[in-house]
Specification:
By secondary structure, this protein is of the alpha+beta class. Strands 1, 2, 3, 4, 5 and 6 form a 6-stranded antiparallel beta sheet that branches. It is globular, with a radius of gyration of 16 Å.
Length: about 180
């Protein structure tokens, strides 16, 4: 629900500011309401040919030190350009989730299907403890309902809201919500 709400901000305005994302995530109180969720953010798809213009625009939006962390030569990048709370997620800002096979597979599956998707187990770049984690992706499109074919969805892609999750914190939260009636 939190990611779908964040997507709602982007439905209202293509140019959602860092401040607006910061205020939205703060209002959700994710530490108390979303166990294991380390933050919420937005990923944008960048064609490599448009990379310089993208970088310039990001640096003009309250973030002159913004850098993209990527490797490889894929024709497109999936860059985390908004993530809050920033203090504990700064290492993820500018990270190209398309540079690593597991993360790319998850985001491409979300885009192609139009459904919320989680990655296989990963290590979050912002988790100093290097615990097992996941990324959850929710794609957004330029029209509603979402286009039907994967190719149409990619063409109409507006972006992807996402959350980094720490598995053991998610499981602890599940146990609390279920009043310890689950054995996982």
């Amino acid at each position: 629900y939190g990611l779908r709400g964040l997507a709602g901000l982007y439905r209202q305005d293509d140019d959602v500011s860092r401040r607006e994302v910061r205020e939205y995530v703060a209002a959700l109180d994710i530490d108390n309401n979303f166990p294991g969720v380390r933050g919420m953010g937005h990923i944008t798809r960048v064609d490599r040919k448009d990379f310089d213009a993208f970088l310039k625009a990001e640096r003009q939006d309250e973030m002159p030190e913004f850098v993209v962390k990527t490797k490889g030569d894929a024709p497109d990048l999936y860059v985390i350009h908004r993530i809050e709370p920033l203090a504990r997620n700064k290492a993820a800002l500018g990270f190209d989730v398309g540079q690593e096979a597991n993360r790319r597979q998850g985001i491409e599956q979300a885009i192609a299907t139009g459904r919320a998707t989680i990655t296989h187990r990963i290590t979050l770049v912002q988790d100093a403890k290097k615990r097992p984690g996941l990324l959850m992706y929710v794609p957004m499109y330029n029209r509603d309902p979402a286009p039907l074919s994967p190719a149409e969805r990619l063409k109409a892609l507006r972006g992807v809201t996402y959350s980094p999750l720490v598995l053991d914190e998610v499981m602890n939260g599940i146990m609390d919500v279920s009043e310890h009636k689950l054995d996982i």
